[in-house]
Amino acid sequence: MAEGGLGHEQSSVDGAMRQSLDSHLLECPICLEQLRQPKSLPCLHSFCLECLGSYITKEVSGKMASASSFSCPVCRKVTEPVNQSEGKESWAEQFPTNNLAVEIIQHLQQTDKSITCKPCETKGNKNAPAKFWCKHNNTYFCTDCKINVHDLLHEECDVHDISELNMSDILQRKASVTGCWKHKEKMEYYCEDHKLLGCSKCIIVDHRKCEVVTSTEDYRDKLRKSSKIDDLLEELRKSTDAMEILIKDVCEQLKTMTLDQDTALQSLTDMRKKINERFDVLQKDLTDKLISAFKEEKENLEISKQQCERLMFSMQNTLTSSEDAALEDDTVGTICLFQRGQAEVESCKELIQELGRSSRSTSIKHEYDSDILAVGNITSLTMGEIVVNQQRRRLPSTVYSSIVPLSERHLKTTGKFTIKVASDKNNCIAYGVVFLPGGRIVVGDDENRKMKLFTEKGDFKFELKLTDASCDLCRIDNNTVAVILDEVKTICIVNVGASTLTVSSKIKIPKLKESCFGVAYHKNYFTVGTTKSIYSVPASGIEPKKLLTTGSKCLHLASNHRNGHVFASIHTSTPDEVAVTRLSDDTHTYILKVSVVKSTTGIDVDREDNVYVCGWNSNNIIQMSGDGSNVRELLKSSDGIEHPRAISVWEDRIVITNTTKSSDKQNFVHIFQLV
After folding, report:
1. What is the DSSP string of 605-666?
2. Residue 554 has what pLDDT?
3. Which is it for strands 139-141 and 189-191: parallel, antiparallel or unpaired?
4. What is the greatest pairwise CA distance in the chain?
5. CA 442, CA 446: separation in Å to the nearest integer?
6. For 46, what's the count of Cα atoms within 13 Å in the CB-facing half-sphere?
7. b/e sequence 208-246, b meaning 16+ C-beta within 10 Å
8. Residue 392 has what pLDDT?
9. Cβ contact 327:335 at 8 Å
């Protein structure tokens, strides 16, 4: 075989693959061009400074002025700026510069300049190519100078042969020497409490009170021994496959919609040939509506496709980087990739769930009455209409199971636990309950005048004493709840930590004489149910506005944070009286009357806009659509449910309290799952 044959060809292929990887690492996921002033987020995804700044401004523009975080454009991990007090337009500048990317870009811009031997350059020979790099001295040597200069003085240095490495490998090794953007020192420690890497200064300043701080080598060994890295790689592969399936599905949808558009446009053209030219204006109007409808739905699908592609490419990059042999000795890189991979897998699952909730099958058609073409027909001539039909569509099956709508699932009991703790003097009466992310369950115990925090497994974490009898609880956000105090007519805002409850503020409701029972929150307003009325109360605590007279007690309220609808549970057993009312934009709609449920109490809304209602006298739980058109009984008295009082839904899990007088059934919270 001639010199420079197969071996040289393989080397070229490897070089091309590495160059492709380098180029991918230097591409901004937002503008898809080479990174400019690259900034890295804590999840290790990098973006142009300008692109990241524009994205942050746009991301938080629709949120409250107090918004203190944004989501990563790739993995959607919630990210906080270094200094929240600065304007949002300067948040991007606070994040560290990706020095590795800067060095690689500089190298790519100077590809015609070879790496030369430093000792030879000092002697006047500026063209002697380097073959070795000393990590300790950060110096390049040719073969002769390595033997005659370096090895005589530094016998135990970590020297690397750079003839088989591309520049990204070298720069990654150099970058790992320092790594800490804050103190410019080597990152040698890992805090398992905060899941953060740090140098010695970071650990002393920020993590000295943390319980588990280990060296990076120990944590890397721990990851390897527990097979977490292998499990993560497998999850990344599954997630990548899932994204590929979803992208293919979106492409099929685009193809079908394009065919629909072509068919409809052709129908318009055929129709135009059969009628008089006086329909020109009508044809143009309908064509514009057709294209507008197509464009709107096409943009929605393309956004979904871009989300999937962006996450898939990032996971592919993580997989490629993880399999790179250059990372075998890169402790920090291994841990960073593990963390990034975890965030990407979680984002993949969340994105699949989100698409499962919002996915719709859209068809666009041109319809007209064929009788208008009949000779002598006196029907008014029209060009028909553009009809857009949308139906809920199930996503194609991926490695993660297809998502069955919550409205088609059944309740399965997963457990129960007692809410009575050692400090309680009386049996508990839980008039309110809220299920928060992370398996946190907050219960309002009226009888003992407390709020209590439990885990989903029933572990008691904290109790907060209240100054008055408490009634309903509601979720404000994922870490904040509100409880309404009956007699003093006050709404307490409570921050919920992993193991703490803290009152952050109190809102006194002025000029309200009726006892307060139900409470719900939406966009800086509370809706409050009383003995015979429902009021709107601004978070500022000014005078409430009466929305509706109910005639009976409104014990519980629930807010759909997505569309702003508020559902009120009216406590009555009189047949055909209103049991559930929906309030929206100062209007109300009666959506359920007393029939299958009697004396309604607890009420809540799930992520798919289904409403759950407790029947205190009928001893059952029902699920219904937001307009009350579809009603089904999830639990009934034969299932052992007795006087259900409060209910809270999170994802596909439900917690229910009951206020029974049976001594063996008091003091419990029941947990269910929709399967």
Report:
1. E-TTS-EEEEETTTTEEEEE-TTSS-EEEEE-GGGT--SEEEEEEETTEEEEEE----TTTT
2. 96
3. unpaired
4. 108
5. 13
6. 20
7. eeeeebeebeebbeebeeeeebeebbebbebbbebbebb
8. 65
9. no
* Bridge-based pairing state of the strands 554-559 and 545-549: unpaired
CB contact set of 211 (below 8 Å; sequence gap of 6+): 193
Cβ atoms of 529 and 562 within 8 Å: the answer is no
From CA 214, how far away is CA 444, in angstroms rounded?
A: 40
CB proximity list for 99: less than 8 A, separation 6 or greater:
175, 181
Q: Which candidate, 607, 570, 562, places its Cα nearest to that of 590?
A: 570
Residue-wise pLDDT for 486-513, tens only, equals 888 999 999 999 889 999 999 999 888 8
- Asked whether the beta carbons of 92 and 81 are under 8 A apart, the reply is no
* pLDDT over 70 at 373, yes or no: no
In our burial notation (b when 16+ CB lie closer than 10 A, e otherwise), range 1-26 reads eeeeeeeeeeeeeeeeebeebbeebb
SS3 227: coil
The answer, yes or no, to whether residue 1 has pLDDT greater than 80, is no
Please state, in angstroms and rounded to a whole number, the distance separating the CA atoms of residues 579 and 592. Answer: 5
In this prediction, residue 399 carries a pLDDT of: 58
- Separation of alpha carbons 611 and 520, rounded Å: 14
554 three-state secondary structure: strand
Instruction: Give the Cα separation of 614 and 432 in Å (integer).
Output: 12
Residue type, 486: D
pLDDT recorded at residue 16? 43
What are the distances in angstroms from CA 638 to CA 219, 503, 620, 661?
A: 52, 40, 9, 18
With a cut of 50, say whether residue 325 has pLDDT above it: no
Residue 621 near residue 634 (C-beta atoms within 8 A)? yes
Q: Report the predicted TM-score, pTM, of the whole model to 2 decimal places.
A: 0.47
The helix-helix angle for 280-323 and 6-25 (nearest 10°) equals 120
Give the pLDDT of residue 541: 78
Report the distance separating Cα 464 and Cα 445, nearest Å.
Answer: 10
The per-residue pLDDT for 455 is 93
Q: How many helices (H) and strands (E) does the chain have?
A: 13, 36
Across the chain, mean pLDDT equals 83
Instruction: Judge whether residue 173 has pLDDT over 60.
Output: no
Name 159's bridge partners. 134
Whole-number Å distance between alpha carbons of 14 and 166: 10
Give yes or no for a contact between 42 and 49, defined as CB atoms under 8 angstroms apart.
Answer: no
Query: 441-462 burial, b for 16+ CB within 10 Å, e for fewer?
Result: bbbbbbbbbbbbbbebeeebbb
SS3 48: strand
Give the integer Cα–Cα distance in Å for 402 and 290. Answer: 32
Find the helix or strand (DSSP H, E) in which 507 lies: strand 501-508
The H or E element that residue 674 is part of is strand 668-674
Q: How many Å apart are CA 432 and CA 430, to the nearest integer?
A: 6
- Give me 151's structure tokens: 């090895």
Structure tokens belonging to residue 625: 């659509």
DSSP letters spanning 386-428: EEEEEEE-PPPP-SSPP---GGG--EEEEEEEE---TT-SS--
